[in-house]
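User: quick one, sequence for these C-alpha cells?
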C-alpha cells in the first residue's frame, strides 16, 4: 500500500512538471510569434517607407511623367516582395489606368509568372492566392487557365477563381461559373452571391448562358440565373421568365423569378404578379408585392389592396407600405382601411404612420 502511494506521488509530480514546462513553452511560443510579427511589420514599414508616396501617386493616377512607376518597377529584390503586397492591396480598390499601372509593377517583379505557376500548386491556399493575383492584375489571357479551378476540390479556391474571373470580366467563363454553382466533387457548390456577382460583371454575350440556366435541373443554379436576370437586368429574358414561372416548383427560385419579372416586365404581367401575391409561400408573395410596387401602375393598387387584410402580418404590412408609394390613390385606400374595423385596420394605420414619420424626417433635412 505504501509503495502504491509513493508511485502515485511520483507520477503526480512528473505530470505537474510536464504541465509547467508545457505552459512555459506555449507562453514562449505565443510571445515569440507576436514579437516576430511585430518585427516583420516594422521591417516592412522600413522597406516600403520612401516608396509609399510613389505608390500613392500611381494609384491615384497622378504619375504623369511615369517617374513613380519607374521607381516602383526598379526596386531591389528584397523590397519587391513588400511592394507587391502593398500594390496588390491597392489593386482591389482602383480601376482604369491606375489599375493597369499597378499591374505593370507586379508584372515587372515576375508576379504574373509566379501566379501562373501557382495555379497548379498542391497547396489550396497557393492556388487560391495565385488565381486572385491574376484577377487583380486583370490578366485576360490567363482566364482560360483559371476556369478549371472552378471545379477545384477546395471551395476556397473555387471562390477565389470566380472572383478573379469577375475582375478579368471574361464572359467565356459564364458557362463554367454556372456549372460551378451545382456541387459535383464538392459537398457544396459556388456560393450564390459570388456566382451572381461574377455573372453580372460579364458582358452581354453571357446573357444567353444565364437564360439557359433558368431550366437547369439544380434549383440553386436556377435561383442564380433568375437573380442575375433581375439584377443586371436582362429585358430580353422576359419571355423565358414568364415560361419558367408556370413550371417552377422551388420557392426560392420562384421568388427570384417573380422579382425579376417586376424589373423587366410591364403592365401585361400584372395579372401574373397579382396571382403570385397570394402564393402560400410567404417569400414568393413578398417578392410579388415588391414587383407590383416596382411596376408602379394604377392597376397595382387594385392588386395590392386585398393583401392589406391578409392573415400573414409581414405580407399585410408590406402591401400597405407599397400602397403608400403608389400615389394618392393608394393612400386613399389605406385611409379607408384605417377608418374601418377589420383585419386591414392595423396594417393600414402602421403604413400611414410610417409615411408621416418619413415625411417629417424629410422636412427636418
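Assistant:
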Amino acid at each position: 500500500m505504501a509503495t502504491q502511494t509513493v508511485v502515485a506521488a511520483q507520477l503526480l509530480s512528473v505530470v505537474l512538471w510536464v504541465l509547467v514546462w508545457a505552459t512555459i513553452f506555449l507562453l514562449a511560443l505565443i510571445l515569440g510569434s507576436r514579437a516576430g510579427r511585430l518585427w516583420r511589420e516594422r521591417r516592412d514599414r522600413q522597406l516600403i517607407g520612401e516608396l509609399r508616396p510613389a505608390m500613392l501617386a500611381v494609384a491615384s493616377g497622378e504619375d504623369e511623367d511615369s517617374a513613380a512607376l519607374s521607381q516602383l518597377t526598379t526596386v531591389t529584390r528584397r523590397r519587391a516582395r513588400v511592394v507587391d503586397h502593398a500594390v496588390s492591396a491597392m489593386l482591389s480598390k482602383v480601376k482604369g489606368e491606375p489599375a493597369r499601372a499597378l499591374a505593370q509593377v507586379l508584372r515587372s517583379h515576375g508576379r504574373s509568372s509566379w501566379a501562373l505557376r501557382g495555379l497548379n500548386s498542391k497547396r489550396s491556399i497557393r492556388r487560391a492566392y495565385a488565381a486572385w493575383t491574376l484577377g487583380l492584375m486583370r490578366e485576360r489571357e490567363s482566364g482560360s487557365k483559371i476556369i478549371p479551378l472552378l471545379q477545384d476540390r477546395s471551395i476556397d479556391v473555387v471562390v477565389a477563381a470566380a472572383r478573379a474571373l469577375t475582375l478579368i470580366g471574361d464572359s467565356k467563363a459564364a458557362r463554367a461559373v454556372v456549372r460551378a454553382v451545382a456541387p459535383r466533387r464538392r459537398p457544396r457548390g459556388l456560393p450564390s452571391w459570388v456566382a451572381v456577382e461574377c455573372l453580372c460583371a460579364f458582358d452581354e454575350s453571357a446573357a444567353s448562358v444565364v437564360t439557359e440556366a433558368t431550366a437547369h435541373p439544380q434549383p440553386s443554379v436556377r435561383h442564380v440565373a433568375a437573380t442575375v436576370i433581375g439584377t443586371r437586368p436582362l429585358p430580353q429574358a422576359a419571355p423565358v421568365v414568364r415560361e419558367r414561372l408556370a413550371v417552377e416548383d422551388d420557392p426560392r427560385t420562384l421568388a427570384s423569378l417573380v422579382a425579376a419579372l417586376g424589373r423587366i416586365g410591364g403592365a401585361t404581367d400584372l395579372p401574373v404578379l397579382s396571382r403570385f401575391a397570394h402564393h402560400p409561400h410567404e417569400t414568393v408573395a413578398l417578392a410579388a408585392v415588391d414587383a407590383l410596387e416596382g411596376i408602379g401602375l394604377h392597376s397595382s393598387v387594385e392588386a395590392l389592396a386585398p393583401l392589406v387584410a391578409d392573415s400573414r402580418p409581414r405580407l399585410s404590412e408590406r402591401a400597405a407600405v407599397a400602397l403608400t408609394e403608389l400615389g394618392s390613390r393608394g393612400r386613399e385606400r389605406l385611409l379607408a382601411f384605417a377608418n374601418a374595423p377589420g383585419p386591414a385596420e392595423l396594417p393600414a394605420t402602421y403604413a400611414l404612420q410610417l409615411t408621416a414619420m418619413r415625411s417629417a424626417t424629410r422636412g427636418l433635412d
